[in-house]
Write a structure and sequence with these properties.
With 178 residues, the protein is of the alpha+beta class. Helix content is 35%, strand content 14%. The strands form 2 sheets. It has a 3-stranded antiparallel β-sheet with strand order 1-2-3, with helices on both faces. The chain has a two-stranded parallel ribbon with strand order 4-5. Helix 4 packs across helix 5. The longest helix is centred in the middle third of the chain and has 13 residues. It is globular, with a radius of gyration of 15 Å. The N and C termini lie far apart (32 Å).
Length: 178
């Protein structure tokens, strides 16, 4: 995936990053604890890409991410992602995760079953742990068995996952399964 540019922008949970290329979004970054650390991470992930204003189509995606992390319910499932280099299994997991509406959750096992691979829950978790498109691919909406948090590879770990779920209303009375 080759990025043509990236930007760092403020959201309800901190500064996020978004990189784009000729074939769509090539990567996102949830907050790294500060604007500087998020920008540093984006420069490390996309060293050839300049930091610049996004084109209008990417600007709409950025606005939708801001709205989502502010409690809105924008449709991110149609955002074009450049999955060049993403393994096929991961793509299939991400496609299923993108169908989970805000405010609802699935388990790793649910996704494994939807893949037709019921014994692959651990592999599903590993794929989501390598998700380069959060929150467009909403890995935070995927929980371990019995509604337990599971892991979360973004800065802040499970606390960030729980915060994102709370913003979406998925934790009001416990997780809402989809």
């Amino acid at each position: 995936m080759t990025a043509q540019g990236f930007t760092v922008f403020v959201t309800g949970i901190g500064h996020c990053g978004l990189a784009w290329g000729e074939h769509g979004i090539v990567g996102t970054q949830l907050p790294e604890g500060s604007e500087h650390r998020t920008r540093t991470r984006m420069r490390r992930l996309f060293p050839e890409a300049p930091e610049t204003e996004p084109p209008p189509s990417v600007g709409h995606t950025l606005d939708d991410i801001v709205a989502l992390l502010d409690g809105g319910r924008p449709e991110l499932c149609t955002v074009e992602l450049d999955m060049t280099g993403v393994p096929d299994f991961h793509r299939r997991v991400y496609d299923i995760a993108r169908t989970i509406p805000p405010g609802t959750t699935l388990t790793y096992g649910d996704i494994a079953h939807r893949l037709g691979m019921p014994r692959s829950a651990q592999a599903v978790g590993q794929a989501l742990g390598r998700n380069p498109f959060a929150p467009i691919v909403p890995c935070h909406r995927v929980l371990a068995a019995n509604g337990k948090d599971g892991g979360f590879s973004a800065n802040g770990g499970v606390a960030t996952k729980r915060r994102m779920l709370a913003i979406e209303g998925a934790l009001a009375d416990g997780p809402t399964l989809f």
